[in-house]
Structures are given as C-alpha cells and as structure tokens.
Specification:
Blueprint (H helix, E strand, L loop, with lengths): L3 E2 L19 H13 L5 E5 L30 E2 L13 E2 L2 H21 L3 E6 L4 H6 L14 H4 L1 H13 L6 E6 L17 H13 L4 E5 L19 H11 L4 E5 L5 H9 L4 E3 L2 H5 L3 H9 L7 H4 L11
Parallel strand pairs: 1-2, 2-5, 3-4, 5-6, 6-7, 7-8, 8-9
Helix pairs in contact: 1-2, 2-5, 6-7
Length: about 325
C-alpha cells in the first residue's frame, strides 16, 4: 500500500490515505484481511511528503498546489529548509528540531498501527523527493544544525527513523526502505555542485543493513524538477544503480530494482545479472495478471486458483 502518510499534513494530496490515528486501522484491516484470505502478503509504505505535500492529484494536474478551498493545507507545509519544490508548489516552513521529533514519534506510532492492522511488511519511504529524501539531498537540505550540512548530518534522520521503526515492529517482521539512488544531477554540477548520488547510496546501504533493514528498494529521482534534463528513462533504467548498491550491501540485505521492467524477459535478465528481486508497479496496474503473463512469456507454469486454473488445463478431462 503506497505512500501512506504518518501525519495529516504529510499527505501528498487531500485524497491520500494515512495512518496517523487509531481510527484509520479498521478500514485498512478490511483490505488486509481480504488479501490474507487469498493467501497473499501485503505491506505498507509509510511516508511524509514534506515540501511536496498539499498538491493536486496528478491525474487532475501534474503541477499545482491544493488550496484550502479543495481541502489543501498550503500554509502548513514543512520541509528541512524553506525551499519550495518549484514555483507552483507551496512555500514550506523550515522544520524546527521539535517538528522533527514530532515527525519521528508519528512515524513510530504509524508503524505500530500498521502492525496492529495486520500488515506483513513495513516500508520506510525515503525516496522520490519526499521528506526523508529532502533531508538526504543537499539540494533541498540547507540546514545549519545537526540535521544538515555534512553527509552524516543529512543521513541522521533516516538512520534514526530506521532504528525507531525496527524497535517498534516485531523482530521477525520484514523492514523495507525505499531510496532514490541518485538525484540525477551529475550533469548539472555547474548549477548544483552537490546532490545525492549513487556513491552516497552505496555508502548508506550498509548502515541501513546494520540497523536491521531486510530489503532495500532502489528507485531514483524526485528531488527537483530539473532532473528531467538528465534522467535517462527506458526499460530497466534504474537497475544499474541497484546493481552497484547490491555490491556495496555485501549480501547483508535483499536489494531490488524497479522502473520500466515491463517484460518477463527483462526481469529474468536482471535477476541473472545478480539482483535479488524485481519489482513492478505500473505494469501491475495495467495488467493485474502480470505474473501469469511473465510466466507464459518465460515458459514457467504459475499456479492459478483451482476455480480458474482448471479452464487452462483441458476442458472435459477427468480430474483426480
């Protein structure tokens, strides 16, 4: 379950779900119970949008603030520094240390609610230009205190959140973290001398593993609109980042790739290169039977529910 807000003002849009209060547990539990009734596992991605909050849903407009008239909170948007994502987004307020502490408490409480609701996995969303990523990147983090400046200070929050969540959830519950491997600003050093890079992600990965992260979900970008001038999208375009980070993690946790993995053939090729897991999002939205499609493409027999699978094994044949 994607990008679930840990604080009300941490939603991306007014229409997003959250887990910032106990009353949100039961509605989510109905979904979880249904998934479990189908012998499936289900995880939740906990997040805070930071300076990218109070925006209009992207299917209505890709670049607009959600005003108070449509349920937005443009005057209550927070970020590491008072730097907006762009001119069309809200002007954020710089978080105080008290705000940061409140955020950490909210994240832990949301993780505990996720456990009570029955989720099988918790993922910390530290990617795509949302709040934790905003602390990691010097493009968005220009603080002068213990949460800004040096690499150690900028990574402080994600490591603190990881420690707190790992302690708050059961020992045997998998903990995922999603990161943006790079800001995609390597070619824009004249304008942005410092950014978050693959080298930084490789340095961060072992620290996350030491803190009990089981699975690193490697994506990229989202910190600034100018990434569009250097991002090179295409089939499996983020997999090379995941492969570099996999080597840096030294087998201490599972590393996955995501992005443009639209065929079974490509997924298998990436696994053969050494990646632990391949993740697909949009392609599942387009085709909920994607696993069966990949199986057909690769000649792999994927077990279907008996109520459906019988129709593919020969009509009229005597069954044992």
């Amino acid at each position: 379950m994607e990008s679930t807000a840990v604080q009300k003002e941490g939603r991306i849009t007014p229409h997003d779900i959250g887990l910032w209060e106990d009353g949100q547990i039961e509605p989510l539990k109905r979904i979880i119970d249904f998934a479990h009734s189908q012998n499936q596992k289900i995880g939740i991605q906990l997040s805070h949008a930071g300076r990218k909050s109070s925006t209009v849903p992207p299917f209505l407009h890709m670049n607009a603030t959600a005003t108070e008239e449509v349920g937005g909170w443009p005057n209550n948007v927070y970020a590491p520094s008072a730097i907006p994502f762009n001119d069309a987004y809200p002007q954020p307020k710089e978080m105080t240390v008290e705000n940061i502490n409140d955020f950490k408490v909210a994240f832990v409480e949301a993780a505990k609610r996720a456990v009570r609701a029955g989720f099988d996995v918790v993922e910390i969303h530290a990617a795509h230009g949302y709040l934790i990523h905003q602390f990691l990147s010097p493009i968005s983090n220009q603080r002068k205190d213990q949460y800004g400046g040096s690499w150690e200070n900028r990574t402080r929050l994600v490591l603190e959140i990881t420690d707190l969540v790992r302690e708050a959830i059961p020992e045997d519950m998998p903990l995922f973290v999603r990161i943006s491997a790079t800001d995609w600003f390597d070619n824009l050093k004249d304008e942005f001398p410092e950014s978050w890079t693959v080298k930084d992600s490789c340095k961060l990965a072992p620290l996350l593993a030491e803190r009990g992260v089981d699975f690193l979900d490697v994506s990229s970008g989202g910190i600034h609109p100018k990434q569009s001038t250097s991002i090179k999208s295409g089939p499996g375009y983020q997999a090379p980042f995941a492969l570099e980070i996999l080597e840096a993690a030294r087998g201490k946790m599972v590393v996955s790739a995501v992005g443009g993995i639209s065929t079974g053939k490509l997924a298998e090729e990436l696994l053969q290169q050494g990646l632990d897991v391949i993740m697909c999002g949009r392609w599942f939205q387009k085709n909920p039977g994607l696993v069966y499609a990949y199986g057909d493409e690769l000649g792999v027999d994927v077990k279907m529910a008996n109520q459906i699978g019988w129709g593919f094994s020969g009509r009229g044949r005597k069954r044992e």
